[in-house]
Amino acid sequence: MYNTAELIDKLKTETILSRDEYLHLIKNREVIRERAAELAGSVCDGIYGKKIYIRGLIEFTNYCRNNCYYCGIRAGNDKADRYRLTPEEIIGCSDSGYELGFRTFVLQGGEDPYYSDEILSKVVRDIKERHPDCAVTLSIGERSYESYRRLKEAGADRYLLRHETVNREHYGLLHPDNMSWDNRVQCLRDLKELGFQTGAGFMVGSPGQTEEDLADELLFLKELRPEMVGIGPFIPHQDTPFGKETAGSAELTLFLLSLIRLTLPDVLLPATTALGTIDPMGREKGILSGANVLMPNLSPVSVRGKYLLYDNKICTGEEAAQCIECLKGRVRKIGYEIVTDRGDHKD
Ligand code: 5AD
Ligand code: FES
């Protein structure tokens, strides 16, 4: 059998393991997680220093044509209080974010056909014109190659599209029949081909996920080589079919952050809001496990309580306007520093 400590060292040196070796680490994570976090932290430090990049998240629509079983803004949730930001409002968020020091804006929304290529291209162009030193990231789900091409042409730099699970059958358990794993992954390949810095990712502990799937996630990421990887624990939302399922664990998410850092040393890896929701110190622990990005919310406070993918989401109330200051303090306390450059991927 494997020597667990040797395996984690091997991962650091070789940046890849076999499926069985990854699986062994995942199954024996209790004995090795501190060492994994330490190694992941030092690898990250060696490449990026003790710097944490911030991305201003603008959640511009919670309308969605899809019906993913886990997601609180699924089309079938008639309790969701829907909103759309106007182009002027989106641009306003980027302006106030710029004043706060943000140099990346992430435009995220449900798959909302209202936002045509024309409308979105204009928003992207306007933001890039007003803030030429900023990166624009889109996170708006599956679109056609032609649509991605137009958005790239408009100036979008990056695109986040989590694949949600590496396992085709598992994908079928999380999504209705009109969605397919193959299409999802094709979108990721299209985005890469078009020159977007691309982010993939998955939920940890979604219903039906196995440890074998997690080992496959690491191999899949190694093969895909995304510039960014977003992972966070699955958290049930009461008005979805998975409302009574158990949440994913912070501890497993943290361990996987470390394995991802060791597998893709220069990847941009956020400590997500979901991680901060499941554990009040989750984002700090994420950074100490190898994450190097935070994505505070820049949406108007009035809509923050409406973009609810899962229950108990943090930073949606009165405190929300203060997130930047709050995060600066939290990050400093653990020996890191929030920086305001664009924070592009280092090749
Ligand atoms: N719990 C955790 N993460 C979720 N997401 C959607 N619903 C949930 C949930 N209930 C994640 C998905 C999606 C990203 C925007 O949010 O991974 O890609
Ligand atoms: Fe939002 Fe602390 S990060 S209140």
Can you describe what's shown?
By secondary structure, the chain is α/β, with parallel strands linked by helices. Helices cover 44% and strands 12% of the residues. The protein is built from 14 helices and 9 strands. It has a 6-stranded parallel beta sheet with strand order 2-3-4-5-6-7. A 3-stranded parallel beta sheet has the order 8-1-9, covered by helices on one side. Helix 3 crosses helix 10 and helix 9 runs parallel beside helix 10. The chain is globular and about 60 Å long. The model has no long low-confidence stretch (mean pLDDT 97). 5'-deoxyadenosine binds next to loops.
* Strand order in space, largest sheet: 2-3-4-5-6-7
Bound molecules: 5'-deoxyadenosine, FE2/S2 (inorganic) cluster
Please estimate the helix content.
40-55%
Alpha carbon gap, first and last residue: 36 Å
Kindly give the count of domains: 1
Proportion of beta-strand residues: 5-15%
Please give the CATH architecture: Alpha-Beta Barrel
Features:
347 residues; alpha/beta; TIM Barrel; six-stranded parallel sheet; three-stranded parallel sheet; 44% helix; binds 5'-deoxyadenosine; binds FE2/S2 (inorganic) cluster
Brief description of this entry?
The protein is an alpha/beta fold and 347 residues long. The protein contains 14 helices and nine strands.
